[in-house]
Design brief:
The chain has 198 residues and is an all-alpha fold. The chain folds into two domains: 46 residues, Homeodomain-like (Arc Repressor Mutant, subunit A, Orthogonal Bundle), CATH 1.10.10.60; 132 residues, Tetracycline Repressor, domain 2 (Orthogonal Bundle). The protein is built from ten helices and no strands. Helix 5 runs antiparallel to helix 10 and helix 7 packs across helix 8. It is globular and about 55 Å long. The termini are far apart. The N terminus is likely disordered. One of its GO terms (molecular function) is transcription cis-regulatory region binding. InterPro entries: Homeodomain-like_sf (IPR009057), HTH-type_TetR-like_transc_reg (IPR050109), HTH_TetR (IPR001647), MT1864/Rv1816-like_C (IPR025996), Tet_transcr_reg_TetR-rel_C_sf (IPR036271). Keywords: DNA-binding, Transcription, Transcription regulation. This is AcrR family transcriptional regulator. Pfam families: TetR_C_33, TetR_N.
Length: 198
């Protein structure tokens, strides 16, 4: 009889192959499926299936984890703006495309958008990487529109609209139809707002 020593020997401790990314995946899932309030290092460890001490190998504290998530969010938003900026056409078409991309991101990742721009990170100046990531979004919008002042105006307009919607201050149809309606509504509003430039 052949004995399988793997099943009879003592269990080996579990070692994660890519702990950092597993922790970030768990944090993203908690953020979007539950809430920012539910996102603790202990909850992330539990979700990733690792010890409660494991997250501290990569994130010295809760704030460091939030900074990493927000920085990733800015990079993702920037990539979507770059893609939208490739839209051929006149300036109003690019403005509408950039605004729709921004709203698509907010509609798909509302909890992340709140973290990126909200008060949960009061010490932003202590994290140059986060500041650079945020600045790069504004820079990319300015590049897309070939005008940094216009880029800032478009960013302010679409971001203000996004936050008003997320906080249920205004209804652009999302209360009845869901957040998926936001990109098309943003396009319409931005075309109206910036039509005078044509």
């Amino acid at each position: 009889m052949i004995m399988d020593v793997r099943s009879t020997g003592p269990k080996r401790p579990y070692h994660h192959g890519d702990l950092r990314n597993a922790l970030l995946d768990a944090a993203r899932a908690i953020l979007e499926e539950e809430s920012l309030g539910a996102l603790s290092l202990r909850a992330v460890a539990r979700r990733a299936g690792v010890s409660h001490a494991a997250p501290y190998r990569h994130f010295p504290n809760h704030e460091a984890l939030l900074v990493e998530l927000a920085s990733e969010g800015f990079a993702e938003l920037k990539a979507e703006i770059v893609e939208a900026a490739a839209t051929p056409g006149a300036e109003p078409d690019r403005i509408a495309a950039v605004g729709a991309a921004y709203m698509r991101f907010v509609a798909r990742r509302p909890a992340l958008a709140r973290l990126m721009f909200g008060p949960q990170l009061p010490n932003r100046e202590s994290f140059p990487k986060l500041a650079e990531a945020a600045d790069s979004v504004g820079d990319e919008i300015g590049k897309a529109l070939h005008d940094s002042a216009l880029g800032l105006a478009v960013w302010a307009a679409v971001h203000g609209l996004a936050m008003l919607v997320l906080e249920n201050v205004i209804d652009l149809g999302q209360r009845r139809s869901g957040l998926d309606v936001l990109p098309s509504r943003a396009e319409i509003l931005l075309r109206s707002l910036f039509a005078v430039r044509e």
